[in-house]
Structures are given as structure tokens and as C-alpha cells.
């Protein structure tokens, strides 16, 4: 689900993100390795191919340090 959310968000903001470098900050650590793995199922492979046209890196933030998302979830 985290990978699908990433694909959805990046495609939604394609106008702003295409051609620029950006950082994706997440508390879902497997997302870092999921996008670099070689043996993926077909769904994740399609997502990975869709994301290849963007220049970004995934940065892991511990859940306790991710105060922005914590605050937003309490609204």
C-alpha cells in the first residue's frame, strides 16, 4: 500500500515533480529496498517502472521522529 500511495502521489503532482530532484520521506523502511529490488511481482514492477522517470530518493524517518505526519493524523 505504501508503494501504491507513493506512485499515486507522484503521478498526481507530476506537473510539479517532473524534471526536479526531490526527497520522499517515509517511516516505511521496506519502501527503500522495494524500489531497488530485482525480483518483484508484476504489480510492483509496473509501479517501479512508472517511477523511473522521476529523480527522487527515499529517506527513512523513524516513526517517533515523524512529527509532521503524527500531527496530521490527529486532525
TrEMBL record:
Residue spans crossing the bilayer: none
The Reverse transcriptase RNase H-like domain extends over 1-54
- Is GTP-binding given among the entry's keywords? no
Its keywords, alphabetically, are: Endonuclease, Hydrolase, Nuclease, Nucleotidyltransferase, RNA-directed DNA polymerase, Transferase
Query: What's the superkingdom here?
Result: Eukaryota
UniProt-recorded Gene Ontology molecular function terms? endonuclease activity; hydrolase activity; RNA-directed DNA polymerase activity
Which InterPro entries does its entry note?
A: DNA/RNA_pol_sf, Retrovirus_Pol_polyprotein, RT_RNaseH
Q: Does the keyword Cell cycle apply?
A: no
Protein name in the entry: Putative tick transposon
Amino acid at each position: 500500500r505504501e508503494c501504491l500511495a507513493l506512485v499515486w502521489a507522484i503521478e498526481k503532482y507530476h506537473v510539479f515533480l517532473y524534471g526536479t530532484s526531490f526527497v520522499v520521506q517515509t517511516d516505511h523502511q521496506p519502501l527503500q529496498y522495494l524500489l531497488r529490488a530485482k525480483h518483484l511481482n508484476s504489480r510492483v514492477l509496473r509501479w517501479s517502472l512508472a517511477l523511473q522517470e522521476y529523480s527522487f530518493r527515499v529517506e527513512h524517518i523513524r516513526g517517533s521522529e515523524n512529527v509532521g505526519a503524527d500531527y496530521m493524523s490527529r486532525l
